[in-house]
Amino acid sequence: MAEPDPRRWKALAIVCAAFFMTVLDVSIVNVALPSIGESLHFSRDNLQWVITAYAITFGGFLLLGGRLADLFGRRRLFLIGVVVFTIASFLCGLAWSEGVLIASRAVQGLGAAIISPAALSIIMTTFEEGAERNKALGVWGAIGGSGAAVGVLAGGVLTEYAGWEWIFFVNVPVGVAAFLLAPRFVRESRSERETSQDIGGAVTVTAGLALLVYSVSKAPEHGWGSGWTLLRLALSALLLVAFVVIESRTKDPLMPFRIFRVRTVTGANISALLLGAVVFANFFILTLYVQQVLGWSALKTGVTFIATAGSAVLWAGVAQALVTRVGAKPIMVVGFVAMTAGMLWYTQIPADGSFWSDLLPGYLLVGFALPFTFIPVSIAALAGVEHDEAGLASGLLNTSQQIGGAIGVAVTSSVSLSHFNHLVATGEPFPTAFTAGTQWAFWVCVGLAVAGLAATIVFVRREEIGSTEGAAVAA
Q1: Which of 110, 311, 438, 450 has the least C-beta neighbours within 10 A?
Q2: DSSP secondary structure of 93-155
Q3: CATH fourth-level superfamily of 8-189+256-459
Q4: Every domain range in the chain assigned CATH 1.20.1250.20
Q5: According to the model, what pLDDT value does residue 466 have?
Q6: Comparison of pLDDT for 80 and 216, the residue scoring more
């Protein structure tokens, strides 16, 4: 057994800092959208593209980014991603028009799609499977779970006191530091297998995933049953079917389907998709509710999410330790039960809600649920995966979460907007109608959380993944 890398914890800090930027930028923009729209004179229809452009390239290129990390070097791809993301962040802050900001956000998403799987695969290949890797993934999961809440907080504070430009400029020093430190502390690794280039697979999966994210993101605007939406969903499905056909016939496929033979990996990715749908939708819906119904400022909106972020960080160490002791599956079950309870709590929020009685209990439940889901899901999704396919497994996990997030936001937005429009048409006041739509959206989140719980119970094997003895006993 090889000696552990003495620089491994410093390497973890570097890759987690870069990963934190990518998670932060999913939600940090939400509370700043009104300021951005006013400053750059965005049209009403184009403002959501500040979010959608990032989501399309982030979700679309993750699988490709993960596989390229395996083939060409995980540290090398990580550094490329950091450079792309940092430069794009700087350009976002300097943006002088809506077109420049949207284009820069798309490039920023591409950088994030390179960083995330490369960073996770670096952790996987730096730490041996077992207690140490579980601890490292516990840090990773805490960042992934709390990042959205911290993003809302940071977005509110920076927008209020420094201006919306600083929600992007804040990434620059972090990116520069990661770029300078990674060559010193992060060792290079790549797949040792000789492989040919799967160009057809790369093109079809990237185009298919990007079009899928775009279609579901815009579906609430055009209508799920509209020809516009159905045509694009059908085209994305055709591209993904073409990808499957190409992969089944290619000697060295971009995504070897043998990875799905590990039942726990398959189950963890299904759970990750549903978890992403719930978490992304939760923060999106709540941000709209507290700003548009309760009338909270960007700053107050951000500050109140400290409860969720703090709770997630507090429970992360406990979740990691319990995974090592009892296995991933029981902790995932606990996490999804808590997430379901949090979503159920939010279905009761009133139009005149208060922080202490109506929001805080839900914030704390979700804060508990985040590490109890993200950490074991991350560990289970990498269980039994060979080092040669670390980037692939990492890209697959991140793709599941991002695609799930896009679908969750789109579906809950559609449900909320449809119910809101119906009530407004009958003469219902705006606060009451908007709150009722929000409640319906959270009922959808309840269903998604229950589905995630069911997927965990059915598909994830009860294994002591990475236990201190290294045992893996199938139930």
Answers
A1: 450
A2: HH--SHHHHHHHHHHHHHHHHHHHHHHHHHHHHHS-TTHHHHHHHHHHHHHHHHHHHHHHHHH
A3: MFS general substrate transporter like domains (1.20.1250.20)
A4: 8-189+256-459
A5: 45
A6: 80
